């Protein structure tokens, strides 16, 4: 069995380069500077010290650094999103409700009737301003008005619920006043009133009234205008009686002579004409009012409703 080497006695000194140098300095030997094996003394000592100590540096890998940065970024973004949701929730919760916008149906303008003394039945009828539509309206209204001695007012409106003006209706019914000079045509106010009359034997006829716009006419000018228009109007009816067919729902035939005058109510010179079919046509001016009817009784009823008492 091998003998274990004992530790050398403490008096035995182990020599090293450093101990030799130190002993030489203590003994006054000259090795305070110089070189050992071609190296400076300080350099040799420093080298030995460096070899005696080993340093281990801790290196942070790029992967770990990048992962750390990503965690920070995601944390910041997540925080911002959460804060945004919280703020948005409270803003939406406290947002005032939008007021409801309601559209009211288009109201019809107030109708002004020229029939000062009428309190009977009234109906608003859509009218596309054609003769064929006018005839359809008459047929329907004649059939609906079954009671005798009855008057019904018809108010014509267009598709937009606007009242149709007197001028438009008169020109439709009388062939645009063809042959009548424009200077001899009155300027009409917009208001227009129309009635259907059922007599004592339930015979139907119509009457209507328009009004001359006389605000810029004196009495002399108004009288002259009415005279010129009346002559031209009678000439139109006598030469083209067929233009009246829509108002009678039949061909009136040929005129029996010319227009004549008769007294009806407060008017002494009501103008009228008879046709071969038996139809009669009446018209007259009462101040600014222009009154037309397809029977004498209808004319009289209309006159009673416009006379101011």
Task: Supply database-style keywords.
309 residues, alpha+beta, two-stranded antiparallel sheet, eight-stranded mixed β-sheet
Write a structural description.
- The chain has a domain at 121-306.
- It is rod-shaped.
- Mean pLDDT is 82; it is low at 31-37 and 52-60.
- Strand 9 and strand 10 (289-293) form a beta hairpin.
- The strands form 2 sheets. The chain has an 8-stranded mixed beta sheet with strand order 3-4-5-6-10-9-8-7, sandwiched between helices. It has a two-stranded antiparallel sheet with strand order 1-2.
- It has helices at residues 17-26, 41-52, 62-94, 131-144, 166-173, 219-239, 245-248, 296-306, and strands at 35-36, 39-40, 121-126, 150-157, 193-198, 204-211, 260-264, 267-274, 280-286, 289-293.
- It contains 8 helices and 10 strands.
- The chain is α+β, with helices and mostly antiparallel strands and 309 residues long.
Structural class by secondary-structure content: alpha+beta
Rg result? 60 Å
Low-confidence region ranges: 31-37, 52-60
Shape: rod-shaped
The oligomerization state is single chain
User: How much strand?
Assistant: 15-25%
What percent of the residues sit in helical stretches (DSSP H or I)? Answer: 25-40%
Fold blueprint:
Elements: H1 17-26, E1 35-36, E2 39-40, H2 41-52, H3 62-94, E3 121-126, H4 131-144, E4 150-157, H5 166-173, E5 193-198, E6 204-211, H6 219-239, H7 245-248, E7 260-264, E8 267-274, E9 280-286, E10 289-293, H8 296-306
Brief write-up:
This protein has 309 residues and is α+β, with helices and mostly antiparallel strands.
